Each structure stands twice: as structure tokens, then as C-alpha cells.
Structure to design on (394 residues):
């Protein structure tokens, strides 16, 4: 993937465009996360020219797989999503199969540690496997992103390009974007798929004409799944906790991490990760160094002295990421409720479809929701095209 705003062609045929490229695409997808990439793949398969506009310097959005130095990696640790449940989420299971990606079961063999109170010793329980297992992708969830890029030949992708404003202009939409070098450009599209969390879209993009009040209220009230959270990783030379009969899973009412898991990769890079339970504002005032210190301290408390010397630690605070979270997400911990009523009403209905995970009527907020939301958004766009080209008899 290109980090800069340069024009390249890779083996998959995807085009990363430079500042001189003419910008008048047909269907524009805002956001190159899982939903945006799935939408692009489906449009390519339907022979529709699609353009992805992504504000970050890389694709994947909340999918973020890095090596122990924190660099994007084809075999690393998932600072964003790591699990999917194909038995309950057949859509993403099918996608993984279609893309031919190897997967493995989340490691859970061994005892679970439970910390109830700081003045009590922790307790060990035999782990009980309930329901279908959580699955992980070999190489990390970023494998999905790389495979999708290969599966959208001819697609156009603008990186470091952030949508600022959308304006209706007759049958078209004018999209004002800011590019990495600070310059502005205007793209024209007939259809826009906004594969961005609705709350972020409402907070960061100006609409002309303005959205109706009910739409604004609904988008604002839709929490972006996991946006308030932070993940901490400690990478080790070997998964030493397994020698002691521990699974790596721990639950804690003491903190700072209420939930810890084995994050060892399919290739054998050993790691533990935990969700940081300290609220976003407190995390910000504690600072990254102190957060790493207290999280590591908890791992030493639970897993012993060997946990004290990781090869590396990684911390990703999603609440501090302006391309995922808004200020509201720092305090709102809710999960979006599935809802199949239209996300866009009024004058914008004809040219704009929301397609991010949070808008899915099934598994909203999850990877599976992103796959389904993209499918529905593309179906809407294709229908719109059929209708506008071949008007139905009244
Ligand atoms: C810590 C964490 C753990 C998670 N764990 C799991 C898990 O185990 N299993 C699971 O199923 N789900 C999990 N999730 C949720 C999962 O990550 C999301 O469901 C999924 O990645 C959402 O994909 P998306 O494409 O809808 O949105 P995103 O991935 O958020 O993509 C939106 C994209 O839009 C871009 N963008 C935003 N604004 C603009 C703009 N104005 N102009 C241009 N581009 C813009 C962003 O940069 C981003 O790339 C987790 C999420 C987090 C943060």
C-alpha cells in the first residue's frame, strides 16, 4: 500500500492516484475500511468504475495489523479487530473463504485467571468453551485488506484525501476533499457510498443542502463500535504462560485491563493483549508511558516475573483517533442497535447511501456488519442505476 500521495500500479492492478489525476468518477466510496473495500470489490465485479477516497495514508480503517515496532505488517498484531465468528456471521465466513484466507481458532486452552479484588489473590479457573469459537486470520485481520485490494482490479484509490463537504448539484454530487499536501480538490460523482461511521460523518462533513433534523439526530446518536476503547499488547520471545497451564485469558475487576487474551500469531510470535478499562479522558491525562507501565504491571501481577521484560509493547487508543472517534465517543460506550430503516432521507436519498458497519441491519459495528452494509449499499447503487437508465413504466 502506498503511504504517500503518489501514483503507482501494483500487481493487483489497483491505482493509487496522484495530485494530477483527473477527478470525475462515477461512484465514489468515502472510506477505505472493510466496508468501503467490500463495496469497491462488488462494484468492480459489476463492471462499475469505482473510486475510493480514504483520509488515512493506508487502507483498512479500524483494521490495523502492525509488527512489534508498530509498522503496518503482513504478519502482525491486531490493534483493531482480531476476531470473527463464522458460525454466527456467515457473510464474513463466506468472504474469508472466497478470498482463500487461512484462519485459526483463538487460543484458549489452559486456565483462566480471575482478579476479583486487589487485596485478594487472583483465582484460576478451567476455561469452559461456550458456543462456536472466535476465529482469527493468519497474518492478522489486515490479511482481509490485502486480499480485497487484490480483488478490486482497476479500482481507483485516493489516499490521504479527506472528504470535507458534499453538495448536491442537479443530478450530481460535488465532493470537496482536502489532500495530504493541504490542497483542496473537487470530485464529481453520480452516487456516493459513505462507508464511514454515521456519527463521524455527521460531525466532520458539511452537507449542502443540510441534512434533515431526524437524520442528523440519528447519525449523532449512533455509537461507533469500539471507538471509546484502547488495546495494549506485550510481545514476548515465547508464550511462557502456556508452560504454566494458563490460556492467556484473564478477567479482572482490579484493572487496568478488565479482559486479557493470548494474541500469539499463527506464525508463532508470542503476545498478550488487553482492552484498557480506563476511560478515554483519564487515559489522555495519564499519558501513554504511564498507561504502558500500569498495563505491564498487571501482566506481571497475573503472569509472573517473565511478563516484566517484553520484546515490545504496543498501545492504540482509538478514542484519540479523529478518523474513528468523535468527542462524543469518548464517553458513550453503547452498541448500535440493528435497524433496517433508511439511513438517508429527503433530498440526499437519491445520491447518497451509507455503507459503514454501523448501518448494517445485522451484526452492526462488527466486521460482519461491514461486509453486509457494503453488500446492501452496492445493491442500492445498482438499483438506482437500473432505475435511472431504464425508467419503470408508471
Ligand atoms: C479496538 C477494536 C476492536 C475490535 N474488535 C472487533 C472484533 O474482534 N471483531 C469484529 O467483528 N469487530 C471488531 N471491531 C469493529 C471492526 O473494527 C469494525 O466493525 C470494522 O472495521 C468497521 O469497518 P468500516 O469499514 O465500517 O469502518 P472503518 O474501519 O472505521 O472505516 C472507515 C474509513 O473511513 C475513513 N474516513 C473517515 N472519515 C473520512 C473522510 N471524511 N474522508 C475520507 N475517509 C474518511 C477512515 O479513515 C476509515 O479508513 C473492533 C474495533 C476496534 C476499534
Amino acid at each position: 500500500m502506498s503511504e504517500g500521495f503518489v501514483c503507482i500500479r501494483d500487481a493487483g492492478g489497483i491505482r493509487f492516484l496522484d495530485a494530477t489525476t483527473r477527478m470525475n468518477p462515477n461512484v465514489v466510496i468515502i472510506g477505505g475500511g472493510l466496508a468501503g473495500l467490500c463495496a469497491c470489490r462488488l462494484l468492480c465485479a459489476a463492471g462499475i468504475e469505482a473510486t475510493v477516497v480514504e483520509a488515512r495514508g493506508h487502507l483498512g480503517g479500524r483494521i490495523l495489523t502492525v509488527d512489534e515496532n508498530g509498522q503496518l505488517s503482513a504478519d502482525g498484531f491486531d490493534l483493531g479487530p482480531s476476531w470473527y465468528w463464522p458460525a454466527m456471521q456467515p457473510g464474513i465466513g463466506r468472504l474469508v473463504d472466497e478470498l482463500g484466507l487461512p484462519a485459526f481458532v483463538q487460543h484458549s486452552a489452559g486456565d483462566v485467571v480471575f482478579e476479583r479484588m486487589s487485596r485478594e489473590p487472583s483465582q484460576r479457573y478451567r476455561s469452559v468453551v461456550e458456543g462456536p469459537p472466535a476465529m482469527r486470520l493468519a497474518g492478522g485481520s489486515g490479511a482481509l485488506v490485502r486480499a480485497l485490494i487484490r480483488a478490486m482490479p482497476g479500482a481507483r484509490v485516493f489516499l490521504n484525501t479527506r472528504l470535507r463537504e458534499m453538495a448536491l448539484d442537479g443530478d450530481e454530487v460535488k465532493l470537496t476533499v482536502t489532500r495530504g499536501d493541504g490542497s483542496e480538490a473537487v470530485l464529481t460523482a453520480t452516487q456516493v457510498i459513505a462507508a464511514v461511521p454515521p456519527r463521524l460523518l455527521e460531525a466532520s462533513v458539511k452537507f449542502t443542502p443540510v441534512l434533515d433534523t431526524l437524520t442528523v439526530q440519528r447519525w449523532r446518536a449512533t455509537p461507533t463500535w469500539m471507538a471509546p476503547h484502547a488495546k495494549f499488547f506485550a510481545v514476548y520471545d515465547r508464550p511462557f504462560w502456556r508452560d504454566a497451564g494458563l490460556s492467556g485469558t484473564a478477567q479482572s475487576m482490579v484493572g487496568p485491563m478488565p479482559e486479557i487474551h493470548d494474541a500469539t500469531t499463527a506464525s508463532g510470535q508470542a503476545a498478550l493483549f488487553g482492552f484498557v478499562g480506563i476511560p478515554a479522558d483519564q487515559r489522555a491525562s495519564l499519558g501513554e508511558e504511564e498507561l504502558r507501565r500500569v498495563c505491564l504491571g498487571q501482566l506481571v501481577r497475573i503472569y509472573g516475573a517473565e511478563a516484566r521484560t517484553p520484546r515490545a509493547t504496543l498501545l492504540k487508543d482509538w478514542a484519540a483517533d479523529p478518523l474513528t472517534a468523535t468527542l462524543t465517543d469518548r464517553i458513550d460506550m453503547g452498541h448500535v442497535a440493528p435497524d433496517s430503516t433508511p439511513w438517508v432521507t429527503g433530498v440526499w436519498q437519491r445520491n447518497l447511501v451509507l455503507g459503514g458497519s454501523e448501518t448494517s441491519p445485522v451484526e452492526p459495528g462488527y466486521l460482519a456488519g461491514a461486509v453486509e452494509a457494503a453488500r446492501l449499499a452496492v445493491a442500492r447503487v445498482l438499483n438506482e442505476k437500473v432505475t435511472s437508465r431504464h425508467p419503470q413504466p408508471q
